[in-house]
Design brief:
This protein is α/β, with parallel strands linked by helices. It folds into 3 domains: about 5-25 and about 150-250, Phosphohistidine domain (Glucose Oxidase, domain 1, 3-Layer(bba) Sandwich); about 35-140, PtsI, HPr-binding domain (Enzyme I, Chain A, domain 2, Orthogonal Bundle); about 265-535, TIM Barrel, CATH 3.20.20. The chain has helices spanning about 35-80, 85-95, 100-115, 120-140, 165-170, 190-195, 235-255, 280-285, 310-325, 360-365, 365-380, 395-415, 430-435, 440, 450-460, 480-495, 510-515, 530-535; strands at about 5, 10, 15-20, 155-160, 175-180, 200-205, 215-220, 225-230, 270-275, 290-295, 330, 385-390, 425-430, 445-450, 495-500, 520-525. Strand 12, helix 12 and strand 13 form a beta-alpha-beta unit.
């Protein structure tokens, strides 16, 4: 009998195929008395080493499939495994209570997960699932269970209560038609991975897993947000027709490669791509982006135990510029803080990190960190068409401070005889404050790039990581669109260009509105470049 369920779409696509219900290989952990605590701790350490090896393999696989930015979660898991507090808590429990390692890991994992889940900060709450993931992996290894392998299956729709990042990435993506989970959030690591893998996915689907059988036919419709189990013959035929239509659309899009990004009435628009690492450049080139409009340099800092050196950064930026062979590369200076926490920065606990000590505020308060990055950027600029932009600007005074530090770096390089080049310098418009003084800021900088993700959350007073507020989050709010228009107009009055690098840039419903506003540049996910180009080429002001 046909059953239809509603959920939240993570990636818009459509798929028809057999269901595979993903059952976690959960182990019933029993409390057992032991006589030798140290040998039990040695067992635990062996399990940690085995887990680290597995996570490294997952990281390497994820880098190839979804890029360094999305793979970074496995580096985070490795770091969490090595956390002294976590390991010490396990060892203390083994020694003090004389219990088996499996039990100590399970209890400690639950305690730490509950502690994170009870925190006010959404980022820390999200780490609760990571703790459970690494603790479950440790228990599995202690019990001698191999990690779940779902590669040996026919192409299927994966249905689960929830999926951890490690479970998602170790699957053979060529055999996954779609994801359906009962729980999860649109900003979870798994959701991000699904989007990067271009796999139709739904979360929050109220389906009883026990009521499903492997092999049942089902439809995942990411456009409508529906999951249909045992669809009728008619629905199957309709779905096949839509899938063929989508495949044809993708094929037609390929015709956009090599085409100019120009409106019907002849206005040239720059169409760039957003990336998180040098490894993403392959996707940029494959999708025919004209440059890189946002290189998130903070990913050079994530998943590490110490600050990246000047040479590490210089080599990454230099490589990006060389690979892009003269095309524009806009690198954003580090945007650490908020949902991107790094232990060695020692930022401290904040009640509201999204509005706290982050991005340019760290750079201005800790100029040594900033100067290291600036030295690497100015040196790398010799090798290509580099622009630099600074995030989270709220005042002209901040821009003056930035330029003073940049001048210090330039003078130091000059004095040392080190080759450098002064890049184009712009700022991100992400705060209502920056919007309201954009007429003054435009006189100081070379360009604006509007970060619509933060601009929307600050304008609407909504934490975009909070799933409870999804119904209130309106990225098309008139206030946001008026702000974008205001920023573009103020830039043009000063002869400067203005672009959009936030998620709204790829919103096909708004392409015409952006063209009418006179937006000069759009920077989007590589997979969206050809779709946006098609829309731009179909626009005419007349």
């Amino acid at each position: 009998m046909t059953q239809e369920y509603k959920g939240k779409s993570v990636y818009k696509g459509i798929a028809l195929g057999p269901v595979v219900v993903f059952q976690k290989n959960d182990v019933q952990v029993k409390r057992e008395k032991i006589t030798d605590a140290e040998s039990e701790i040695a067992r635990m350490q062996d399990a940690v080493s085995a887990s680290q090896e597995q996570l490294q393999k997952l990281y390497d696989k994820a880098v190839k499939e979804v890029g360094e930015a999305s793979a970074a979660i496995f580096e985070v898991h490795q770091m969490m495994l090595e956390d002294e507090d976590y390991q010490e808590a396990i060892c203390n429990m083994i020694r003090n209570e004389m219990v088996n390692a499996e039990y100590a890991v399970a209890v400690t994992g639950d305690n730490f997960a509950e502690m994170f889940a009870g925190m006010d900060d959404d980022y820390m709450q999200a780490r609760s699932a990571d703790i459970r993931d690494i603790s479950n992996r440790l228990v599995q290894n202690l019990c001698g269970h191999a990690p779940v392998d779902m590669n040996d299956m026919e192409p299927s729709i994966i249905v689960a209560d929830d999926l951890s990042p490690s479970e998602t990435v170790q699957m053979d993506k060529d055999k996954i038609l779609g994801f359906v989970t009962v729980h999860g959030s649109t900003n979870s690591h798994t959701a991000i991975l699904a989007r990067m893998m271009n796999i139709p996915a739904l979360i929050g689907v109220p389906v009883e897993l026990d009521a499903l059988q492997n092999g049942m036919q089902a439809v995942v419709d990411g456009f409508a947000g529906t999951f249909v189990v045992e669809p009728s013959k008619e629905v199957c035929e309709q779905t096949k027709a839509r899938m063929a239509e989508e495949a044809e659309k993708q094929q037609l899009l390929q015709q956009m490669k090599g085409q100019e990004t120009v409106t019907k009435d002849g206005r040239q628009v720059h169409l760039y791509a957003n990336i998180g690492s040098v490894s993403d450049i392959a996707s940029v080139l494959d999708n025919d982006a004209e440059g890189i409009g946002l290189f998130r340099s903070e990913f050079l800092y994530l998943g590490k135990t110490d600050f990246p050196t000047e040479e590490e950064q210089f080599n990454a930026y230099k490589q990006a510029l060389q690979l892009m062979a003269g095309k524009k590369v806009i690198i954003r200076t580090l945007d650490i803080g908020a949902d991107k926490q790094v232990d060695y920065f020692n930022l401290g606990q904040e009640d509201n990190p999204a509005m706290g000590y982050r991005a340019i505020r760290i750079c201005l308060k800790q100029p040594d960190i900033f100067k290291t990055q600036l030295r690497a950027l100015l040196r790398a600029a010799v090798y290509g068409n580099l622009s630099v932009m600074y995030p989270m600007i709220t005042s002209t005074e901040e821009v003056e401070q930035i330029f003073a530090i940049v001048e210090e770096v330039r003078a130091e390089l000059e004095a040392a005889g080190i080759p450098y080049k002064m890049p184009e310098q712009g700022i991100m418009i992400e705060t209502p404050a920056a919007v309201m003084i954009s007429d003054e800021l435009a006189e100081m900088v070379d360009f604006f790039s509007i970060g619509t993700n933060d601009l929307t959350q600050y304008t609407l007073a909504i934490d975009r990581q909070n799933a409870k507020l999804d119904d209130f989050y309106n990225a098309h709010h008139k206030a946001i669109l008026r702000m974008i228009r205001m920023v573009v107009e103020n830039a043009h009055k000063c002869g400067k260009w203005a672009g959009i690098c936030g998620e709204l840039g790829a919103d096909l419903e708004l392409t015409n509105a952006f063209m009418e506003m006179g937006v000069d540049e759009l920077s989007v996910a590589p997979s969206m470049v050809l779709k946006v180009r098609k829309n731009i080429r179909e626009y005419s002001a007349n």
